[in-house]
Every structure is written in C-alpha cells, then in structure tokens.
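ping. complex inputs:
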Amino acid sequence: MSETTADRPPLIEARGLSKHYGTIVANDDVDVAIGHGEIVAVVGDNGAGKSTLAKMLSGAVVPDAGEILMDGRPVSLRNPVEARAKGIETIYQDLAMAPNLDVVTNLYLGRERLRRGPGRVFGFVDRKAMRAEVAAHLADLDINIPRLWGTPVASLSGGQRQSVAIARALVWASKLVIMDEPTAALGVKQSAAVLQIAKNIREKGISVVIISHILPHVLELADRIVVMRHGRKVADVSAAELDEHKLIELIVGLRTPAAAT
Amino acid sequence: MSTTPAADDVEPVTAKPTAGGGAAPAAPPGEPPPPAPGGMGSRARTVILRPDFALPIVTLLLFLYLSFANEFFFSERNLLNVTQAVAIVGIAAAFATIVVISGGIDLSPVVIFIMAGLVSYWALNRGLPVPVAILAAVAAGGAIGLLNGLLIAVGNLNPFIVTLGTNFLFTGLAFVLTDGESLVIEDEGFRDFGSADVVGDLSMTTVVMAASFAAAFVILRMTRFGTHVFAIGGDANAARLSGVRVVRVKTLVYVIAGLSSGVAGVMLAASSGSIAPFQAAGQNDLLLILAAVIIGGTALEGGRGTVIGTLVGILLLGIISNGLVLEDVSSFWQPVVVGTLLLVAIILDEVRRRAALKVI
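pong. complex structure:
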C-alpha cells in the first residue's frame, strides 16, 4: 500500500469500496491493492466481508461506492464478462459450473469458439476445435480430468470438479485469479494440490487473491494478508511478519495492527 | 462437494486415469462410453429405462401392433393423417422443448394460435397480400412471446404464472374480439396455402412441422444460443457468472416460442379456413404440447431434454389417438392413455436419475 509514485502502479487498486445490503454493511470504505505477481490473502470471520470484496473485484457484485484501478487507470467491472475481458478470472466457492454440461462446454461457457465461414453468422459452435484446445490446455497445465466431453460434470467427483473450475480460470486468466475458499470442500491431498497450483500461477506472473479461513494455508501461500472485520479492512500486513497466533488475534480484534494504512 | 458419500470418494485433484482394469478413459478422442462400473446387468437396465430409448421402443411397438392388427393403419393416407393431425401442436411443441430445457414453461402457445389467426384474418380483410398477412400473424406471436420473455427474464417473474396470465388475458381478448363466434376466412389464396401439398402428398402443415423440429434441433444442439439455454436450465447463476447473458437468452427463448406458435396459428387458420376461439379455452392442445415434451424425456426442472424426444412423443400421441379411432375405441379413452403415459414417463425419468446417481 505504499503510495510511492515512482513505483509501477499495482495491478489492481481498489479505493473506498463500499457495499450495503439493506441495512447490512458488507464492505465499508475498503482500500486494497494487489501487485503484479503477488499472492494476497483475504481473511476474516464469517460475515466479515471477504467474499463481497472478492466479488466486487471479479465483477459479480457492483460496489455502491468506490473505484477500481488497473495499472493506475480506473476500470469498470460491473459484471463478470467485463472483469474477464480484463484478464480477471474467479474460482467461485460453489465452482459456478453448469452441472448438466460436460467439461469442454463448461470451460468455454460464455466464450464459445464459433465455426468459421457462414456457420459463424448463426452462432454455430466449433466443438472439434474446443475439444482439441481443452485437451492441449489441460496437458499444458498438468491437470488430468477423465471424460472431457459426453458426460456432465455433475457425474465427476468433487475433486475433479474442483480441478475443472481451476482449469477454467487458468486457461483464461492473464492478470489475476481470484480464489474464493478454494480448499473449503477438499481433503488434505487435494488442498495441497490446489495450493501448489496457486504458486504455479504466480510463477507465470499472474496475481492471486485467495479468500480462505484456513490460516495455515494462508500463511504458507500468501505474500500479504488483508484482514477484514465487520466489513472493514483492519489489517494489511506482509505474511512474513505474522504467525497463526497473531493472525487470529487480528481476526477477532484482540490486536490492532501497526501496519494498517 | 459432499454429494458423494459413495465408496471411492476421494480422487486426487490431478486424477490419473486409474480406473480399475476395464474401460479406462485412456483414449481421449471418440465418444467416451457411458460410465457403468456396476457390470453389464445394471448398464443394460439403465439403457432400457432411459426415456430416450424407452420412448422410441414403445412407439415402434405400438406402430407395429397397429400395422398388423388394423387393416387401415398402415396406409399412406392414414399415416399422412396421423402426422397432419399432430402437425399444428407439433410446431409449437418443438420450441416448447427449448423453453422447458431453459428451466421455464410456456402456457401460452395455443392462445397465440388464436391471436395469430385473428391477426391474419384482420390483415386479409384489409386486403393485404397473403405473405404480409402471414408475416403479421407470426410477428404477433413473437410479440406475445416477447411480452412473456420480458416479464419472466427482466421482471424475474415465475414463468408459470406469467404465461398463465397471458393465456387468460389473450383468451379473453380473443372472445371479446370475436364475440365468441368462429370466423371464416374467405381469402382463397390463404386457404390454398394452408391446404397445399408440398412434397408429394405431404401437406404444408406437415412440412412446416418437420422444418420446425429440424430448426429447433439445430438451434439447440449446434449454436451458442442452444448451449446457453442448457446452461441456464442447469444452473442460471453459474451461467451468469460464466458470462452467459441470461436475461437476453431467456427473453429470446420465449420470443422464439411465440414466433413458432404464431407459425402454428397461421397454419391452423389457413388449413382449417377458420378461427375458433373456443379452441383456446379448451386447452386440450396445450396439454398435448406439454405432454409431448415431457413424454419425450425433457426434464421439467430444466437443463435436460431433446427435440427428437419431443418429436417421437408427439408422433406417439398421434398414433394413440389414431389407433383408438381405428380400433373403434371410444375417444374418451384417449386422455386415460395419455395420462398413463405421462406418469410412466416421469417415473422412468426418476428411476433413471436415481440409477445415474448411484453410478457416480
């Protein structure tokens, strides 16, 4: 959050984000910045506003007030399509996949490859191309999912569905991947794999925002940790300065951070 | 995802293709085989129980039975009668399938038949040429569909209630406009169009029905729009987050259904030479449309279904009705048979669903 003008501006900078649901204040005047290739964790108790913050960055929720800048320029993220056009991909907690469609169709949902030539006018989809591309992408990412087409994702196991959701984000993201509780429903082994994937994303120079309440994961993974409480940002600290105990104290409000802006 | 309390629930995120010994999904190209680790017996059972297989089998058996048991059934004239009899409702049923797959329902097709007929009557009486009258009638159908679609998609209102409302509204309007009387269409050109034979002995209505099913099939299976219809029926919120323009697609679904009902209305008016508003009040055709869709294996909760299933469903209903007449059974039995079929179809669907869940 250093406001030094000489620096390259952060990838994403949110200023004064607020969101109310009726009388409930989900987010109140939240500032947050995510640097290039940085992993930022957002933690907090249930109802602290972490998911709302993530959804405002992913375009799923429109803030009541505040602005979002990318590379120093104000951008509009009023829906997921706008966010994705700017290279922001989100892995939602419920995975947000059409359970009745197969892996390939889900990976391309909302941005289907169309056939060349006259078929394009009628919006004919090019299944062959999509299948080939998905197979290549997944091989690239070292993600192995059996049955890429012909079977609905509802018939895959929970872990496989999670990897489909991750694969979808990785295939399309160019700037930022937002992970909302990516390990909440997973076993130990699967969680470790997801964390490894998050690190791999950073290797590619893509930033990661991870929402989680599993603190060991957060501490292991994140460069910086943002703590939310009652819709406000109460701390924004380098992960290196924290341990689990200090982090819990910040979350429940027993400790007031010196490092917060 | 704690939906699978079954045996081998934990699969690593980067699952290797380790499936037992048999059909390992090692070969990526080609259609993968249906997953049925329960052995041949259970696989055969789920295949037979699937509505997409059970329905054609039942239809074929009935067809064969009537062909042998009745001397009149298997004649060109009679088979043309069967298709002719279901053609009007078939046109609407093809696109009602798309509505149901999107997770909606449309109770307004038959009242659109009547309104489209009235518009064509009005246009012809004003001396407008036949093609203009037809276009105006189809457009009227599309307009009612647009009203439905906007209320449902933009207004986020329940499709059952919205289309029930427009059904009542326009049925009443049809009665008001006609004083409840049937109207006879005088225009020869329009009536010739409706009774023309297009290909050999195939009537215009039958050909239009065939074209409607072909169009609905292509739209649903081959276009981006069709994919989005399935996605919305499966999980509208997931579709929205994936970038599907849910409101637009939903609205279009009802517009297309309205247009097709407008076409059906034109064909009804042109082939019968009259417009009979009391037909809309009877709602018999509406129930046939919905029955064909459901018997055809389309799930009322959305996300699952086929246009071909609906085609077979509507043909089955036509064959039943025709067979009852030929076999000299009171036509009062027809609803009994259709009702039984509906119940069997929905039970089969549930059995299949459970079998599929067990396989996971």
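Helices of chain A lie at 50-58, 80-85, 103-107, 127-141, 158-172, 188-203, 215-221, 244-252.
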